[in-house]
Design goal:
The complex is a heterodimer of chains A (292) and B (287). By secondary structure, chain A is mostly helical. Chain A contains 12 helices and no strands. Chain B is globular, with a radius of gyration of 19 Å. In chain B, the strands form 2 sheets. Chain B has a 6-stranded mixed beta sheet with strand order 6-7-8-3-9-10, with helices on both faces. Chain B has a 4-stranded antiparallel beta sheet with strand order 2-1-4-5, with helices on one face. Classes of the chains: A mainly alpha (292), B alpha/beta (287).
Chain lengths: 292, 287
C-alpha cells in the first residue's frame, strides 16, 4: 500500500498499482476521483454501449412527446413501460411468455437432439453423409419459414405447429455445424490416436467428438436465433397466445406499445439464451475460452 | 494415502535399473520394404527394397534429403502405413498395424488441445483400458521424467514448443513401449531449444533404455544422438550407407565441437550433398 505523500503515484487505498494511474495528474487528490476513473476503465466497453442505448431511448421519448403525440403507429418508451405493467398485471404477458417459451424450448430441444445426432452420423459415416447431404444443404438454402402455413394446416393453430416451425428452422444449422465440426478435426490428432492403437469407436469418442465441440456449440447458437425467429413467425401466421401473437394482435388494435412489449421481451429472451449457452460452452470447452 | 495398497495395485513401472530395462527393449527388423505412392496417374517409388536392423536398446537414426522416404519408413514401422512389399518385425513378430509395443513421437504438435498435460500423457494407457487413477499416476511419473511436473495441469496452448515436444515424448513413454519411434520430433523447435532437447533425450534414453528409431534431416543431430546412422538417398529412397558412431557415452553437447564429431558429420554430408544441392536448385521440392 502506498502512502498519499508519494507524489508521482497517487492511488486509492489498498488498490493495486495499475498502468493507467501513472498518467494521472499527480496533484489530483487520491480517492473518489481515481476510483471513478478506475471503474470506468474496467467497464469502458459496457458503459459506452449503454450510453448509446440510453441516448437513443431519450431521443425516442423526446421525439414522440414533441412531434408525434397523437400517433397510432409509434409509442414512446414510457408508454411501452406502462404497457408492460398493464399486461403483466392482467396476466396476459405471463401467458404469452409461457406459451412462447414452451414452443421454443420443446422445438429447440428436439432440434438439438435430432441435429446433433444427424450431424455426428453425417460427419462420421460417409454413406450417411452422401445420402443426406443434398437434402440438408438444399433445405438450408431454402427459406423454410415458408413452410409455416403448411405446418399450421398439418398441426393446427395450437403450440404443435409452432414447435414444428422452431424445429425445422433450428435443426439445419445444428446439423451442418456438427457435421463440419467432425470433418474439420485436425487429421494429425486422428492419426495420433490411431498410432496409439485406438479403435474407430475410441477415435470417434475421444478425438472427433471433443474436436467438433466448438463448432457444435456454434451451431446451437445459430439454432437459438433461428428458433426464436420460428416462434414469432409461426405465431404471426396463426396462434391463440404467445409473444408473436401479442405483437400481431397489438398491431391489429393500433397499439404500438403492445408491439414493442413483444419485441423487447423476445430480444431479452435471445440475449439470455446466448449468454447461457456461452456459460455451457465455457464449462464444456475450457481449453478454448482461455485463449479468447 | 496408504502406501502399501498403492504399490500393490500399481502397474509395473519402467525399471530404474538399466540392465533390467534392457530386457524390455526389443529390436526392429525391416526387410525389403518397398512403398509406392500413387497420385492420379503418377506413381512414385518412395522406398525401394529397404532393409535394416535396430538391435534391442540401440539408438539408430535415419538421415537423408527431403523426399528420401524416411518419414514414410517411420510410419511403416509404426504400422500407420502398409508397405507394398516387405515386412517389419518387432522382437521377431511381424507387425500388422499400430500396437502398444511402439511409442510414436510425431514431428508436428499432436497433443489434444482439450486435454491437460496429465490427460494427454495418459491417452495411450486410457486406450488400452487402464483405469484413470493408475494411468494418471503413471502419466505424472513420465511428466516428471521429462521435467514438466510443474505444468501437469496445464493445457497444451499454455506450453512452449519445447515443452509440448517433451510432453509428446512422455506420452509415448507412458505406454512402456518396447520401441520408440521419433519422426523429426525437434524440427519445429528453435536452434537452442533443439540442442537442449537433444541432451534431454539422451538423458531419458539412458534412464529408460528403449530401442529408438529416430528420423531427422539434421546430420549433427543424428550423429550426436545415435549408435548408428543410416544414410538414405532419395527418389527412390534407398539405404546409401550405415555409419557406426564411435563417440563415447554418455555424451554432452561439448562432443559437437570435437574433431571426431565433425569427421562423422562431414562424411555423411558428402554422401547427401549432391542430392541436397539438386533439390535446392530444382524448386519446388516435394515435402
Amino acid at each position: 500500500m502506498s502512502s498519499p505523500t508519494v507524489l508521482d503515484a497517487p492511488q486509492g487505498a489498498g488498490m493495486p498499482k495499475r498502468e493507467w494511474q501513472s498518467y494521472e495528474d499527480p496533484s489530483g487528490p487520491p480517492g473518489l476521483r481515481s476510483r471513478i476513473a478506475r471503474f470506468y476503465e474496467d467497464h469502458r466497453a459496457f458503459i459506452r454501449g449503454l450510453t448509446t442505448v440510453v441516448v437513443l431511448l431519450i431521443a425516442w421519448e423526446v421525439v414522440c412527446r414533441l412531434w408525434m403525440k397523437k400517433s397510432l403507429a409509434v409509442a414512446p418508451p414510457s408508454a411501452v413501460y406502462h404497457a408492460y405493467i398493464h399486461l403483466a398485471r392482467n396476466g396476459q404477458l405471463g401467458k404469452d411468455v409461457v406459451t412462447s417459451l414452451k414452443e421454443f424450448l420443446i422445438g429447440f430441444a428436439l432440434a438439438a437432439a435430432v441435429g446433433i445426432t444427424l450431424g455426428l452420423l453425417m460427419g462420421g459415416i460417409r454413406a450417411v453423409r452422401e445420402y443426406l447431404e443434398p437434402i440438408v444443404n438444399g433445405l438450408y438454402a431454402t427459406p423454410v419459414i415458408a413452410l409455416a402455413p403448411l405446418f399450421i394446416l398439418w398441426f393446427g393453430i395450437g403450440i404443435n405447429s409452432k414447435i414444428a416451425v422452431v424445429f425445422i428452422l433450428a435443426v439445419l444449422p445444428i446439423v451442418i455445424n456438427t457435421e463440419t465440426g467432425i470433418r474439420t478435426v485436425d487429421g494429425h490428432l486422428i492419426e495420433t490416436a490411431y498410432a496409439f492403437s485406438a479403435s474407430r469407436a475410441q477415435i470417434f469418442r475421444k478425438v472427433l467428438l471433443p474436436g467438433a465441440l466448438p463448432l457444435l456449440v456454434a451451431g446451437l447458437r445459430l439454432g437459438i436465433g433461428r428458433g426464436l425467429l420460428g416462434v414469432v413467425a409461426g405465431e404471426l401466421f396463426a396462434a391463440q397466445a404467445g409473444l408473436g401473437y401479442l405483437i400481431f394482435a397489438s398491431s391489429q388494435l393500433f397499439d404500438p406499445a403492445g408491439v414493442f412489449v413483444g419485441i423487447t421481451a423476445l430480444a431479452f429472451a435471445g440475449i439470455v439464451s446466448v449468454a447461457l449457452l456461452k456459460r455451457v460452452e465455457k464449462r464444456l470447452a475450457p481449453w478454448r475460452t482461455d485463449t479468447e | 494415502m496408504n502406501a502399501d495398497t498403492t504399490t500393490a495395485t500399481r502397474r509395473p513401472v519402467a525399471p530404474q535399473d538399466p540392465v533390467a530395462a534392457l530386457a524390455e527393449a526389443k529390436g526392429i527388423t525391416a526387410e525389403g520394404i518397398t512403398m509406392v505412392f500413387r497420385r492420379r496417374d503418377k506413381t512414385t517409388l518412395v522406398c525401394d527394397d529397404v532393409s535394416f536392423e535396430v538391435k534391442p536398446g540401440e539408438f539408430v537414426s535415419i538421415v537423408g534429403p527431403s523426399g528420401c522416404g524416411k518419414t514414410t519408413l517411420a510410419r511403416i514401422v509404426g504400422g500407420l502405413l502398409r508397405p507394398v512389399a516387405g515386412t517389419v518385425r518387432i522382437g521377431g513378430e511381424v507387425i500388422t498395424g499400430p500396437g502398444p509395443d511402439r511409442g510414436f513421437v510425431f514431428q508436428q504438435d499432436s497433443l489434444f488441445p482439450w486435454r491437460n498435460l496429465v490427460d494427454n500423457v495418459r491417452f495411450g494407457l486410457e486406450i488400452q483400458g487402464t483405469g484413470k487413477k493408475e494411468s494418471s499416476e503413471r502419466a505424472r511419473e513420465m511428466i516428471g521424467l521429462v521435467g514438466l511436473s510443474e505444468f501437469a495441469n496445464h493445457y497444451p496452448h499454455e506450453l512452449s514448443g519445447g515443452m509440448r515436444q517433451r510432453a509428446n515424448l512422455a506420452r509415448a513413454l507412458a505406454i512402456s513401449p518396447n520401441v520408440l519411434l521419433m519422426d523429426e520430433p525437434f524440427s519445429a523447435l528453435d536452434a537452442q531449444t533443439r540442442e537442449f532437447m537433444q541432451a534431454e533425450l539422451l538423458r531419458i534414453w539412458r534412464e529408460q533404455r528403449r530401442t529408438v528409431l529416430f528420423i531427422t534431416h539434421q546430420i549433427d543431430e543424428a550423429v550426436f544422438l545415435s549408435d548408428r546412422v543410416i544414410v538414405m538417398s532419395s527418389r527412390p529412397g534407398r539405404i546409401r550407407d550405415i555409419h557406426t558412431i564411435g563417440l563415447p557415452r554418455p555424451r554432452d553437447l561439448h562432443v559437437k565441437r570435437t574433431p571426431e564429431f565433425v569427421g562423422y558429420t562431414d562424411a555423411i554430408w558428402r554422401q547427401i550433398e549432391r542430392e541436397a544441392r539438386r533439390d535446392f536448385e530444382s524448386a519446388p521440392t516435394e515435402s
